[in-house]
Predict the 3D structure of the following.
Amino acid sequence: MNLKDIFHCSIAAVMKRAGISRFTIFCGLVAVLALLYVSLWLFPSSAASPDIPQTILLMDDYGYEQYRIKDPDALVIDATKATWIVSNVTKPRNRYPFLVEDSEPGLIIEGGTITGEVPLDISWRDAYKNSAAVYSRDNEDVTITGWKITQAWDAIRITGERDWSFVVDDVWLENIRDDGIENDDGLGGIIQNSLFDGVFVGISLADSKTKNQSDRVVTIDRTLIRMQPFLYKGEITHHSIFKVDKGGDSPALDLRNSVFAIADVDHEGQERLGVAWDSVVNAEGNYFLNLSDDELPRDYPLPPEDGFTILEGQEAREFWESARAAWLGDGPVDPTPTSISVADLIERLREKDQNAQLPFETTVGELIDGA
């Protein structure tokens, strides 16, 4: 008798002594399998599966080391406790410290602090070594949230297919030498609850290769954007709040409860700013601030008549400080401005032209003072 026969005889003897029939064992096995099937059907998450998306957790101080990932098997990249240095001119260089590409739709990228070494005291041309602190390359419907970025070239760069979208939420940018957000593919999206505290270009919505994206919309909501002058073509100035295609191929704009502040009334890109204002499809509760003591020239491109209030000089600076403090959580927004609306301002300009009571060179500031 071999071992197999001995085993079967032993099992049969145990079953006979216990009074268990083969039919009873069969029924028991069927019941166990049925229970297992039902539990997997009712509670599928209890089964481990390699297809379930994971969260990629980054917690290191990367310094000049780039983090780059292609086609991540995750729905969330959590870099809230991670830090990087961005450097584009001096060595060691780290021009793209955080780069994610070709993810599944809906990726959430949580930051994260990136501190820059991009020179602020040399000309724009000399500092132009292409770079972006956070680079989302071809990630459909991506959300970028919670980042603090200082002294970068471009702070955030987003590329993708024409019908894709993005969300930028709760980001804090300071001393950005070029674009706060570069969206040169002209994707539709939402920029909300963010502070751009010193940028050379606010938001870029086009370059020379941008296709017609005028059917797309970029919404800016509860966001503060302050322009920062730097050395550019021999002058200390800044560019436009919006860099758009002059032919109107950039996305339309929906502007809500936001603050847009310039520091130089003679800044670059005023033609583009005029085109951007013309593309606004909705505006409500916004402020346009002239932080300088130079009054807005009469031919300065003004924002839409409805949905904007203009402040200048000291009043504008106080409003900005109050709004900034509120965003940072240091106090409420309560500037109590005695401002004039854009609609009233334009009406006064029209009256001036009709009545010829004021000289042609009268500034917007003089009209406000006389209100």
